[in-house]
Amino acid sequence: MTALASAEVIIVGGGLHGCSAALHLARAGVGAIVVEKNYVGRHASGVNAGGVRTLARHDAEIPLALAALELWHRIGDLVDDDCGFECHGQLRVAENDGEAASLRERAARLRALGYAHERWIERDELFARVPALSRHCVGALVAERDGAALPYRTTWAFRRKAEALGQRFFEGTRVHGVGRADGAWNVETSAGRLTGRVLVNCAGAWANAVCTQLGEPVPLEPIAPMMLVTLRMPHFLDPVVLGTGRPLSFKQTQEGTVLIGGGRRAKVECDAETTELDFRELALSAQTVRDLFPVMREATIHRGWAGIEARMPDDIPVIGPSAVTPDAFHAFGFSAHGFALGPIVGRITADLITRGATELPIAPFAIGRFLPA
Amino acid sequence: MYKRLPDAAAAAPAVLLTIDGADFAARAGDTVAAALLAAGYDACRTTPVTGAPRGPFCLMGVCFDCLAVVDGLPNQQTCLIPVRAGMRIERQQGAAVFGPAAGSAQGPR
Amino acid sequence: MTLPERCDVVVVGAGPAGLAAAVECARAGAATVILDEQAGPGGQIYRAITSTPMQNRDVLGADYWHGATLVAALQGSGATYVPRAAAFAVSRADGGGFEVGVASGGAAALIRAGQVILATGALERPFPIPGWTLPGVIAAGAAQILLKTAGLVPEGPVVLAGTGPLLYLVAAQFARVGAAIDCLLDTTPPGRIRDAWPHAGAFLASPYAAKGFALLRQARASTRIVRGVERLEALGAQRLASVRYTVGGRATEIPAAALLLHQGVVPDINLSNAIGCDHRWHAARSCFEPVVDVYGATSAAGITVAGDGAGIAGAQAAEARGTLAGLHALAALGRIDAGERDNRAAEAKARVARWTRGRAFVDALYRPPDAFRMPLGDTVVCRCEEITAEQVIATARLGCPGPNQMKSFLRCGMGPCQGRLCGLTVTEMIARERGVSPAEVGYYRLRFPVKPITLGELASLPQTTASTQAVVRMKAH
Q1: What secondary structure letter does DSSP report for B80?
Q2: What is the domain partition of chain A in residue ranges?
Q3: What is the pLDDT of residue C171?
Q4: CA distances from B99 to A131, A296, B46 (A)
Q5: Which of A127, B24, C242, C254 falls between 20 and 30 A from A284, CA-CA?
């Protein structure tokens, strides 16, 4: 079969991580093709809550999140688009003394590790920053430089810049299989064969199909975290607010709509690419919001949705080289908190490809942690 | 402006309510949207995007242009709500305001 | 709101299709709940049938008053009728059947049902012209609703504009109550009759022909009709003041206090779309319709669509299709077998055939012209978010392939109406820019809730006592 197209690097998956890898490779002068079964940004990348946070990260993710945040604050330099990025900080509220104690301990522990990005604030400062918050809250951890951006616009901007720099995108093109021949990769797709020297797996909830083909299957779980959005309300909230004892991610957009997330899950059929909202779970989210923000009691819920994402059992992603084959790399499994990391993980992937190393600590994300010893 | 046909004027009892604080006699069976139009308000709100005036358009619950504040609750589709004696109707200015300030007539922009 | 926790059949919508379906199911002994967001039954075609102040039957006509028979049948059937209740979600229940989310007056509930019949009917096709968002501009069907529900008519000068039989019906009804219409601006292109001619035979043999000619006569007798209108604009500062129309390249401006717009009706597909039923683009009718069989069964087992929501065919066809959907549900529940279903369906199928004969002619004759389906310039396309035609076109030219992506760029379709008044326009405009069929472009991907609910209503739903679903947590390490 003659090849449909060839490039130095073939990237499976046109979400933010695939587009980011393509962009950073372009900046390094390396050609890439992104192959995407739907359209760029169709799934988790295009429909998530848009949180850009260093707050509340797993220890292993903190260095990546801090590096990503620096990129976010200059995102226009990278992709010629501000991506709707706004910085009003993120807060994680404690509703009682037990939660407060655990948050204060965390701040102290992070300080001991050399991280100062999470700071404990008491009630007075909390209510000055979030006047609409219920007065039963006792304090919060705040990350000042955190913010939020627009997920679909961001993914689109990375794609557009990568394309402007010469990368190619094949949308509506489904990968049927990957295999090696003569030291190169053959990626069989619905539109023909793509060939390349390096393979990158950014296939999100479908990444395990690629892993399995490579001979390193992983315990990936497709999940569908649910979101709700309201009709517009007058401005009452600047920072993004997270819950501690019960899941919540709460923000108000520039237009005045309010986004309610937190990770409660819809039912998901990964192969059919469908999700079904669970209204009983959403009722719990609604109660959390009602308790924390009394002004929201009669707010008009306008739409719910759920994006399809990949979760790993330890809630941190798989990033880095294949454990079993040369010239293959992974960036998937972001467990519902990969959006903020998009700009930096693409650079990590590009660095691994172009110079075999990255200065960021990615050992905890190695795929090998799932393989039998 | 709208006028009530003679058949209709006689047909049903009056329902006393207020629109932006002013008394108005609607008819039993009117929707709130019909009452607003009958009272001479062809705009029931201003949009949150540009502040443009809007009034009921489809009268059947699909256009969402008939939104107004009813008994303190904003974003109400007035074409779906039958009038009730003592009802407080207020035109909605811009984005919905909730809580104690809901329904305070802020006047057209 | 008193709702049973479970039933055999939930019918969404109490227009002719919903009423007939509910009656069929309830009479056969199936526990049937029929929901409607209006305060009274009848849908739109029989709106206010139990409460209208227009009691002189000559005004609204015999076709309207037929609705009273249907409502009487409902009252005797044993079905539970719940007014002012909006079905906002339909999900598959664990263990089979469905859960229907219902919101009513500050509370929400979930009803379990074995079968769900969607009878949400139609809405007027979007008619985007410059100034169509001005107060004083309403849909012609809306004017008819004001007449039916409240005996209100607009004060003049009143202008009717567009294409389609409803325009002539409204003109005739207004004439009967002595409400003046200054003119009817007909946008039906001259020569359209040629396109419709192949279907004329069926039309002439149908029940529509005699009614149609009579309506046309009444309309012509009561108002000045201007034919071949190519361009329409509603003008005014804070409200409508005048209408400018163009015929043969010449523009005329006339004062107007009310402009009543109409260019046909299209299925309301938001609920069937959000459920995930397959839909198809109907080229001759320029709209999306759910894919259904003769009983109204969709691609989602257990979900049936009856009435205009499955394809525009009018009230009588809707009633017959409601009967068919009811019979299908009874068979699916095991209350009757397939043989009995088919036997009992024969009469309703014959009625559907009788009342759909001649539709193709009407569809072709009154197909709205491109200029009024795909506007240009600063004409508002998305009323909720105030997005203009030139913004939509520019975004399509940037490479935006479809309406779902366009939502993320422009907020087009993200307002409260959930695309009901812009969806078809946006799909057709993108299709034209891309040079492909609207079928390929697709439609907005709708999600629940299909009608807004408040946070308080959502919070009042029953929850799992122990939430067995794992939650993606941010652990306090």
Answers
A1: G
A2: 3-50+152-217+314-370, 90-144+225-306
A3: 94
A4: 14, 8, 19
A5: A127
- What is the residue whose two structure tokens read 């993004």? A240
Instruction: Out of C452, C456, C472, name the one closest to residue A223 (CB).
Output: C472
Query: For residues C251 and C245, what is the distance between their CA atoms, to the nearest angstrom?
Result: 5
Could you say which of C405, C458, C470 has the minimum Cβ distance to residue A39?
C405
Quote the minimal CA–CA distance from B19 to chain C in Å.
18
Per the CB < 8 A criterion, the answer to whether A251 and A51 are in contact is yes
Q: Cα(A259)–Cα(A252) distance, rounded to whole angstroms?
A: 6
C-beta atoms of A276 and C110 within 8 A:
no
Contact C153 B7 (CB under 8 A): no
Cβ pair B98:A296 closer than 8 A: yes
Inter-residue contact A218 to A310 (CB < 8 Å): no
Mutation for testing the B interface, residue in C49, C145, C177, C265 having most B CBs under 10 Å:
C145
Contact C219, C185 (CB under 8 A): no
Q: Would you call A258 an interface residue with chain C, using a CB distance cutoff of 8 Å?
A: no
CA–CA separation, A372 and A369 (whole Å): 8
- Pick from B12, B49, B60: CB nearest C145: B60
C465 Cα to chain A: minimum distance (Å): 10
- Taking 90 as the threshold, does the pLDDT of residue C97 lie above it? yes
Q: How far is Cα A260 from Cα C455, in angstroms, rounded to an integer?
A: 11
Cα–Cα distances (Å) from A56 to A24, A106, A140, in that order, read 27, 9, 11
* Architecture (CATH level 2) of domain A3-50+152-217+314-370: 3-Layer(bba) Sandwich (3.50)
Q: What is the largest CA-CA distance in chain C?
A: 81
CA of B91 vs chain C CAs: smallest distance (Å)? 14
Query: What's the CA gap between C30 and C470, in Å, rounded?
Result: 37
Q: How far is C348 from chain B (nearest CA, A)?
A: 28
Q: DSSP string of A232-253? A: P------SEEE-SSS--EEEE-
Is the pTM higher than 0.80? The answer reads yes
Write out pLDDT tens, residues C213-223. Answer: 888 898 899 89
| pLDDT < 50 stretches in chain A | none
The Cα-based distances of A99 to A54, A59, A92, C29, C250 in angstroms read 19, 19, 10, 55, 74
Residues 6+ apart with CB under 8 A from C261: C124, C127, C129, C132, C137, C138, C139, C140, C161, C162
Chain C residues whose beta carbon lies within 8 Å of the beta carbon of residue B58: 123-124, 138-139, 141-142, 421
**Subunit partners of chain C (3 or more CB pairs within 8 A):** A, B
Predicted confidence at residue C268, as pLDDT, reads 98
Q: How far apart are CA C268 and CA C420, in angstroms?
A: 8
Lowest-confidence pick of A116-125, C65-74, C243-252, C464-473: C464-473
Contact A352, A196 (CB under 8 A): no
Q: Does domain A90-144+225-306 have CATH number 3.40.190.170?
A: no
Question: What does the radius of gyration of chain B's CA atoms come to, in whole angstroms?
Answer: 13
